[in-house]
Amino acid sequence: MSSVLTPDQILGVDSVFAKEDLEWAGIVRKWLDENVREKIGDWYIDGTIPARELAEGLGELGVLGMHLEGYGCGGATATQYGLACRELEAIDSGLRSLVSVQGSLAMFAIHHWGSEEQKEEWLPRMAQGKAIGCFGLTEPDVGSDPAGMRTYAKKDGDDWILNGAKMWITNSPVADVAVVWAKTDEVDAKGKNVVRGFVVPTNTPGVETPVIKRKISLRASITGEIVLDNVRLPASAMLPKAKGLRGPLSCLSEARFGIVFGVTGAARDALEAALDYTGTRIQFDRPLSSFQISQQKLAKAFGQYASITLLAAHIGKIKDEKGVMPEQISLGKMVTVDTAMNICRDLRALFGGSGITSEYSPLRHAVNLETVLTYEGTHEVHQLTLGRAMTGINAFAN
């Protein structure tokens, strides 16, 4: 029998990423293996996750807002953050979503667009996991076209009055603070109402965050709404540096970067699980891994995994060295999520009937990735974004 190499050994992952970055990823993986891995299947079946307990643990580990500078944040590189997301999503997309929403949406919005007072009030506690944040952009009738949002913020003296509703908001039922985007009375040069962001403590009168139930995908994640009924906020609640859709879209681009890396973790975990199962499951007096069709499936999945890992590493390098373009993030999300989902689907078949249980991860990953394919810009939106970049023609317009 030939010697056995892991997928990452064949890929030569130690030549793809720096030694210190892989050591950091190993620390994250060890913590997750010790504290989360054995429990995630039950959380998925139960449709919940102990968000507050995990947030504090992840805060102590140092992954919440780790790529931000100051205010208790780690100041890590983009690649280091990406590798942390990779380990988180190797456990479950819901876990990576908790961290992404906290660090790359809510914390990034405050860090990049907020006042000094907002930063000092929220970021240290959020970095420690002592406060949980959420990000309110998507609405019940407005997904891919944020310019069509109906949530409205009206001036009343020095205060703002917010009314509206946000939908599909990760963490909202357990959040202490929500970053909410709304149209205002202010009009831009084109005569359109200017979008502004607001830092909204969820205990503010008029704020409700009901949970969304009956999810089939991303079940180990707490998802809800943000309902705003005449919510009065002081002038200091507005993010002073964000004007227009550039604010929320910059946050989405930051979160998408974590997805680009994260889904490679789901693919790796599915591949590792399939290799372990087929190596020990006996059929016709032979391990499943000894059959040509099994090896064909495993080799195909490995090739796909290798390609998306290299793409993620390339985008991370660009982001660290010179800054990444939104189109490059769209390329990453479009390719890595779709490919990872297909890897997990294909490998599920190697488990036979056992593959539909929560004991094994590939189907859970595949079902979760259906959600990841949709949020932070649907697969089709990223296709059109790249089409526009390559042709100069905006296919979004009528």
Give me the CATH fold name of the largest domain. Butyryl-CoA Dehydrogenase, subunit A, domain 3
CATH superfamily name of the largest domain? Answer: Butyryl-CoA Dehydrogenase, subunit A, domain 3
Largest sheet: 7 strands, mixed
Secondary structure category: alpha+beta
Number of domains: 3
Order of helices and strands: HHHHHHHHEEEEEEEHEEHHHH
Radius of gyration, taken over Cα atoms and rounded to an integer in Å: 21 Å
Straight-line N-to-C gap? 61 Å
What's the shape? globular
How many helices in DSSP terms?
Answer: 13
Helix content: 40-55%
> How many runs of DSSP E, i.e. beta strands?
9
Which residues form runs of ≥5 with pLDDT under 50?
A: none
CATH architecture of the largest domain: Up-down Bundle
Question: Any chance you could write out the topology, listing elements then pairs?
Answer:
Elements: H1 7-11, H2 13-16, H3 19-35, H4 37-46, H5 51-61, H6 78-91, H7 93-113, H8 116-128, E1 133-136, E2 152-156, E3 159-170, E4 177-187, E5 193-201, E6 207-208, E7 223-233, H9 246-280, E8 282-283, E9 286-287, H10 292-321, H11 326-348, H12 362-374, H13 379-391
Parallel strand pairs: 1-4, 2-4
Antiparallel strand pairs: 2-3, 3-7, 4-5, 6-7, 8-9
Helix pairs in contact: 3-6, 6-7, 6-9, 7-8, 7-9, 9-10, 9-11, 9-12, 10-11, 11-12, 11-13
Protein name: Acyl-CoA dehydrogenase family protein
Organism: Brevibacterium samyangense
InterPro entries: Acyl-CoA_Oxase/DH_mid-dom, Acyl-CoA_Oxase/DH_mid-dom_sf, AcylCo_DH-like_C, AcylCo_DH/oxidase_C, AcylCoA_DH/ox_N, AcylCoA_DH/ox_N_sf, AcylCoA_DH/oxidase_NM_dom_sf, Glutaryl-CoA_DH_mitochondrial
